Each structure stands twice: as C-alpha cells, then as structure tokens.
C-alpha cells in the first residue's frame, strides 16, 4: 500500500501535468479523470483496480454475479453520474410540472412562510423551474461545471457542494425575501461557480475570467423586470466559497473525517438559519 502522505501532490501520479483533487479511496494517490475507476465509495487508481480484479477473478469461479450487481457496475462506470442524475431528475420534474399544469411546483417550490410545515421545500426547490429558458440555462451550466467539479472532487463531495449551496440559497431568500415564491437550481449552480473559482485559485490557476462570469450573471439578477431571485444567487455563492475553501484545506486523506464534519456542519448551519430566518421575518 502507498503511504497516504504521498497524496500531498496536486497532480496525478501517472500524469504529472494534470491537476486533480481526487484521491484513490484505497491507497491515497492523486489521480486524474483518465486514471479514475468509480467504486462503491469514491474512485480507485489503476493499480488498486488491477489488484481488485485479480481477486474478483479468483472468487468469480465460485458464483456468478447477479443481474442487480451487473446493473450497479454498469451505472458505476458512467462518468459524472451525479451530474447526469441531477439533470435527468430536473428535466423530468419540469416536464411533469408542465403536463400537470404546475401541480408539482405547488408542492416543491420554496416559500419561507411554509417552512415549519413543509421543510422539504428548501431542497426540492432545486428541481423545479419555470420557463423553458430557465431550465435550459441552469441545466447547461450544471452540465458544464458539474462535470468538471465532479471529476475534481468525486461524486459525494460534488453532491454535498451542490445541496449545501442550494440550501444556503433558500436560507438567504428566507432572510431577504420572506414569503416570496422561488424556483430553480440557480443558487446551487452559483455555488458551483464560486467553489470552482476557489479550487482553481488553490491550484495556482488564473480564474479571473470565471470571477467576471460570476459577477456578470449576478448583476443580471438585480436588473428591473428580470424576476430573478438574486438572494438565492448570493446565498449559493457564499456557500460555494466556504465549501471550496473546505475542500482546498482538507484535501489530505488523513483529513477526511475533518472534511466530512465540516460539510455536515455547513449543512446543519444552513438549515438552522432557514428556521431562524423564518422566526425573525415571518414567525
């Protein structure tokens, strides 16, 4: 086994010119997307995969895999599977909402006045969209940045970032726009923008252009008549900066427990602040 301290490098151990934040779940090596093999938890490097396949070949003679096992393996081989699932669910919900005349929006959109009795809305709002351009822009942005971040961070870290940013967007809406109806994944997507900026800076890359993109898109939300929830955007950006900083500072495999604890703390604080905001502005 490789000493986990060797994972301090920011580059793939097989491709020194490629930067990555993803570590092999078994040995702790830094691996780029080309060298990653999805596993039940995290990803594995080529050496660990060869070792596992050798063991699997020995054990397979005793009993063949079930159809469920085969399906799971095929899904695990899908690149950026969390991004694909998020987009698929969002599109399906949007289509069903259009066909039902807005029925799903009534139960999934966010309104801080309903928080005590329907708290699920702080998360489900991410899957509800209004017009066709609204969902097209959000899913396009998720497709571009979601794939890059999922490659860099791994599936579970990416999902944690996405939902923490989304909940933080709902939180700021509760404080700054209480009682208003909000739909869309914009808060989570702006969180992806911010986290990507922080990670690029931590790797020593120039991310000024990304900062300009974030600023321009944020300004659009303040224009009269746009009907855009800039509060959700700002909440997502703040959470994205914090979460990106957490990832950058707790990258070593020995800090995995600390990283998990900080992410859980972020989520708990964001949810708690939603209820504090309700108590202050509505309750």
Automatic annotation (TrEMBL):
<keyword id="KW-0645">Protease</keyword>
<keyword id="KW-0378">Hydrolase</keyword>
<protein>
    <submittedName>
        <fullName>Rhomboid family intramembrane serine protease</fullName>
        <ecNumber>3.4.21.105</ecNumber>
    </submittedName>
</protein>
